[in-house]
Design a protein that fits this description.
Order of helices and strands: HEHHEHEHEHEEEHH
Helix content: 25-40%
CATH topology of the largest domain: Rossmann fold
CATH superfamily of the largest domain: Alpha/Beta hydrolase fold, catalytic domain
Strand content: 5-15%
Number of domains: 2
CATH class of the largest domain: Alpha Beta
Strand order of the largest sheet: 1-3-2-4-5-6-7
Radius of gyration: 31 Å
Structural class: alpha/beta
Largest sheet: 7 strands, mixed
CATH architecture of the largest domain: 3-Layer(aba) Sandwich
């Protein structure tokens, strides 16, 4: 066995043992939280947007996709999962689990270079299972991956797309960029972030729940509030005003019956 073949086997062994990376660690969430005040999209909508990104087995491409994930975290999107082509069954299962526990969630599938065909297949399987896929992004410098016609918003980014792209699909041309550098190019990050923002904005924001009081099936009737009059030293014994009760009657201690304050003694000098 040649030295080059031995290195190739070691690399394949490392890749085979790699479980991929899911950005649920504190690092990705921390970046998203720090970016929150500067984001145009509210936190609720951003946190309902889940991104699953598929790369090829190229180690350089895997590292570049991790860099893209970090850049998306910095744009306020915390829930970004990355993996290689063999992780798509896990991604599909995770999408089913998320949908079952979070009906408001939507998914954006992102494919990079040789991982793009697997990403397209993942979208097809997800839609066949009625999972809420809201967007597809294909990052392919050569434009070799055919954009799917699935009725889902699709964005293609690369130097090989453009006028030749399928009608009705959005295409961003990024010239003079390599296959790996395309993933981290500022123009790519801007285009992907814009799509994510627009997808997130379609998620309904729930109306705030206004609680008027502590209530439960066995709750007793609200007690009326008795004003404390001017005896402020006893105020800790009285209910405080609330939104569901009203004050009744006169002050508990009437000014007519309140004892007069003691007069200050007068000291007479001899």
């Amino acid at each position: 066995m040649s030295r080059q073949s031995g290195r190739a086997l070691v690399l394949l062994a490392i890749l085979a043992g790699s479980p991929g990376c899911v950005s649920c660690a504190s690092h990705g969430y921390g970046l998203a939280v720090e970016a929150g005040p500067n984001c145009d999209v509210p936190e609720f909508q951003r946190n309902q947007t889940y991104i699953f990104a598929v790369s090829s087995l190229n180690p350089a491409g895997i590292l570049a996709l991790e860099t893209l994930r970090t850049k998306l975290n910095e744009q306020g999107f915390a829930k970004v999962a990355t993996g290689q082509v063999w992780h798509t069954p896990w991604m599909l299962a995770e999408m089913r689990r998320i949908t079952a526990t979070n009906p408001e969630a939507v998914f954006v599938i992102l494919g990079c270079e040789a991982g793009s065909p697997k990403a397209v297949r993942l979208v097809e399987n997800a839609l066949a299972q009625n999972l809420p896929v809201a967007g597809v992004v294909l990052l392919d410098a050569d434009g070799k991956t055919t954009a799917p016609r699935l009725g889902v918003r699709t964005l293609t980014v690369g130097s090989g797309y453009g006028s030749a792209a399928t009608t009705g699909l959005e295409s961003i041309v990024v010239p003079d960029v390599g296959r790996i550098s395309l993933l981290t190019d500022a123009r790519t990050v801007e285009a992907v972030t814009r799509l994510l923002n627009e997808v997130a904005m379609t998620i309904p924001v729930p109306s705030p729940v206004i609680t008027t009081g502590w209530d439960y099936p066995q709750a007793p009737e609200d007690r009326p509030i008795i004003p404390i009059g001017s005896s402020l030293e006893w105020s800790y014994l009285f209910d405080q005003p609330g939104s569901r009760v009203t004050a009744i009657g006169d002050p508990l201690i009437s000014t007519a019956t309140r004892p007069a304050p003691l007069s200050t003694p007068t000291v007479r000098r001899p």
